[in-house]
Amino acid sequence: MVGTAVVVGGGIGGLAAAIGLRRIGWEIRVVERAPVLEDAGAGISLAANGLRALDELGVGEAVRSAARGQYSGGTRTPAGGWLTRMDGALLEKAVGTPIVGIPRATLHRLLREALPAEALLIGYDAGAVRQTAPGRVRVEDGRGDVLEADLVVAADGIGSRIRSGLFPAHPGPVHSGSTVLRALTEEAVDLRTDFELTWGRGAEFGHIAFHDGRAEWHAVLSLPAGTRFPDPLAELRRRFHDWHDPIPALLDATRPEAVLHHDIGELRTPLPSYAVGRIALLGDAAHAMTPHLGQGACQALEDAVTLAAALATAPTTEAALARYDAERRPRSQAVARAARQAGRMGQRLTHPVAVGLRNTAMRLTPSRTATRMILRHHAWTPPRLR
Questions:
Q1: Residue 153 lies in a domain
Q2: What percent of the chain has pLDDT over 70?
Q3: Number of folded domains that form the chain
Q4: Could you tell me the residue range of the domain that residue 60 belongs to?
Q5: Is the pTM of this model over 0.70?
Q6: Is residue 386 included in any domain, yes or no?
Q7: Taking residues 300-311, what's their average pLDDT?
Q8: CB-CB contact of 299 with 11 (8 Å)
Q9: Angle, helices 12-23/48-57, rounded to nearest 10 degrees
Q10: How far apart are CA 125 and CA 102, in angstroms?
Q11: Residue 53 belongs to a domain with what CATH number?
């Protein structure tokens, strides 16, 4: 079965969905509200499930070439003691690939390059989405421009207007209780590990190392929504000045204007369906989750491949979307719950006794046991598209 599709949203999930649909013979248009597709953002880790999805989309090799494998590192205390050590080689042996780190802008560029330039429509603010007979969906922007297709993929993010229109009674995204500041360093930093997380009381600091010696760092703080600082970098230097190396060095290697600050939201109330008629919800529009497992982008990539595979084999679009919903909703919502719980046991903990008990439990957990826990989310086999 082939047809035409409009993908609303030009982020990682939307571009991946467009690539998948194009690989099975569909005609696609990606519409993005932003007037310019800027290579913005910090960094991202991709686990085996996300890389396997990218392989099925035909861009896995390019992404691996631009990424750095995460073989060393782990989780530490602010004083520098190790809670867990990463065994990237053991993980690679178990699932066939290490976790990799890549600048988000690089990943976005590689996905864009897999699509013809004419497939991307920038500055199109998709507003009303209406299903029309027979079996067509109509997308309109605020200027009266209209696109019609057999399918609309709503990949318009955590604040999805399409989702709000389909489920008006749903409460929508809520603040997770945390905010994140992050940036790429301006210059190379002397790092001894590929990836680290450090958990303090109500705070987390982490880094991802890249091929060129630069790094992405992030700081997650337990703060009310809307909290902002006049000088974010100075505030982070104040909060983390006595945390272990290389945290101060990472902050010193960052330009103040490079720091991004976002509140972390999530869809705490699960959606009853990822498909309504000929509209499919994908990525954060369907299952926005906290970042504590590093699975947000990976789950969107899984969505994209699963949707394309269903459309390639099902007899009708409606049957394909029903299959997509049945396959993706249980898994992605389970991962979202696990990410929320990981945050509660990690960065969100503040009581000294609770922090101490967690740290002891982590130190006593064997490496192989920790690896098995990771594999619950990473060990996913994509459906074949070709």
A1: yes
A2: 97
A3: 1
A4: 4-70+99-173+267-344
A5: yes
A6: no
A7: 98
A8: no
A9: 40
A10: 29
A11: 3.50.50.60
